[in-house]
Amino acid sequence: MAAQIIDGKAVADRIREELRARLARLVSSGVRPGLAAVLVGDNPGSQLYVKMKGEASEEMGLAHWTIRMPADTPQPALLAEVARLNADPQVHGILVQQPLPPQISTEAAVLAVDPRKDVDCFHPETPAGVVELLVRSGNDPAGKDVVIAGRSNIVGKPLAALLMQKAPKANATVTVAHSATKDLAAHTRRADILVAAMGAPRMITADMVKDGAVVIDVGINRIPDATKKSGYRTVGDVDFAAVKEKVRAISPVPGGVGPMTIAMLLSNTVHAAELSLQT
Amino acid sequence: MAAQIIDGKAVADRIREELRARLARLVSSGVRPGLAAVLVGDNPGSQLYVKMKGEASEEMGLAHWTIRMPADTPQPALLAEVARLNADPQVHGILVQQPLPPQISTEAAVLAVDPRKDVDCFHPETPAGVVELLVRSGNDPAGKDVVIAGRSNIVGKPLAALLMQKAPKANATVTVAHSATKDLAAHTRRADILVAAMGAPRMITADMVKDGAVVIDVGINRIPDATKKSGYRTVGDVDFAAVKEKVRAISPVPGGVGPMTIAMLLSNTVHAAELSLQT
């Protein structure tokens, strides 16, 4: 039987549709959710992400602001800007784009954001996107053995924390494996749900996956490809072509977890605006 | 071969010995580490814990204060007291004893403590005690398969977060199992290191443990015992008598993790005082 290919774009579109209804209710209560992104310096990747987030907010009908600060901004100036946004009732979500220049402590910047406005942090976007992809594709993690390969602070660790909770969309038995794991394949092979988040191109091969498992690929890796005009193509952490032959469901790269990220950011901003009405 | 019985009392005494040397250096720099405990209401268990912590601080030579507030203290009054302690340079560690009365949000109280003074939170005492017990008994978790049975917010989850880090005394492949785990024994049986923290008397039986494993028992359960004057005795989450016959090392209850907890609180307070000198 052919594996279900989990279509992240379609799931993200469904989430945006639901958000439109919540947004309409907020607007009719006089609240337009607003997202402020703070961009320090001119890292091209960061500029692109912030631009995409702004366009997605615009398209959804959220208020949005991009605050650009020079690369040599001293830490107190950034913290003062965050404090101003914390105090601004029109701003429901604040996003300090990383990486930050070396004179600024990422931890200090993250801690400065009012927790009620920290849309990046209260449900980190990629982990929340993985959970939504699972649940909305009919693969609820409750009671399942989930193995997460990779322990990054932005994916592996927060995803483990989400999935092990006694809560809906969670309640899984969670293992976090990584570079120091003595037998990675022994762990991946027993997973009902395998999340690949190591950042190693196509490292998860078919022999490392159980028949009938569900596989979510968080990897985004560029590998050389002479047949492409750009000279490279993007692959995940999973050997998709081989693994899809034995699993029940698998998310592709691109088109799996990627499209979920911005949808979750919008969702977090709308949620923050809803909370602001309750207090 | 007889199992190593991991003696928590002896390890805790060694830690206190080391702390005395660090304390002497601090005092010679003009800093006496100080621990403030805030006790709201008259829960007898909380009173006992706070008393034990005060006595241990006294015995170690730390400054210590117990702030007692009535059971009907409004949340703003508690937060104001915490703010006062945050601002007091003589106070290096602040401990808001839980449980708190219903009119006070535990989360708000915990978030109010200056992170640099949050001795309960930056290395939660029981999880940090488990890590020290492992390392100091010669059972470093690095590269090992660790299975934690139990996902409480005060033990299972923070211990998992500690052990999965890429750091000394950590770097383990960590699984968190719990009440929704479909086959608990399948997980416990593959553990190199098994941490029992479910709060279920002697639930881990010998058939659930691998030959030669290391077992840390966090459980503290009272079971009826007619032969005792009190009518009960204290047992852990592990069937100690049977399990010790097949493992490499095991911590008993009482005398294992228990004695470590207060030693770690003292250690966290001394550490906070050392950090205060650096900034």
Corresponding CATH architecture of the largest domain in chain A: 3-Layer(aba) Sandwich
| Count of structural domains of chain A | 2
Order of helices and strands of chain A: EHEHEHEHHEHEHEEEEHEH
What's the CATH first level of the largest domain in chain A? Answer: Alpha Beta
Helix content of chain A: 25-40%
General form of chain A: globular
Secondary-structure content class of chain A: alpha/beta
The total of helices of chain A stands at 9
* Assembly state of the chains shown: homodimer
What value does the Rg of chain A take, in angstroms? 20 Å
Question: How would you describe what is shown here?
Answer:
Two copies of one chain form a homodimer. The first copy, chain A, is α/β, with parallel strands linked by helices. Chain A has two domains: 30-119, Leucine Dehydrogenase, chain A, domain 1 (Rossmann fold, 3-Layer(aba) Sandwich), CATH 3.40.50.10860; 125-258, NAD(P)-binding Rossmann-like Domain (Rossmann fold), CATH 3.40.50. The first copy, chain A, is 39% helix and 17% strand. Chain A is built from nine helices and eleven strands. Chain A has helices spanning 8-28, 44-60, 75-87, 106-112, 125-136, 156-164, 184-188, 240-243, 258-278; strands at 4-5, 34-40, 63-69, 93-96, 145-149, 173-177, 193-196, 214-217, 221-224, 232-235, 249-250. In chain A, the strands form three sheets. In chain A, strands 1-11-8-7-5-6 form a six-stranded parallel sheet. In chain A, strands 3-2-4 form a three-stranded parallel sheet, sandwiched between helices. In chain A, strands 9-10 form a two-stranded antiparallel ribbon. In chain A, strand 5 (145-149), helix 6 (156-164) and strand 6 (173-177) form a beta-alpha-beta unit. In chain A, helix 1 (8-28) runs parallel beside helix 9 and helix 5 crosses helix 9. The termini of chain A are far apart. Chain A binds chain B through residues 111, 115, 142-145, 151, 157, 160-161, 164-166, 171-182, 187, and chain B through 111, 115, 142-145, 151, 157, 160-161, 164-166, 171-182, 187. Strand 6 of chain A pairs antiparallel with strand 6 of chain B.
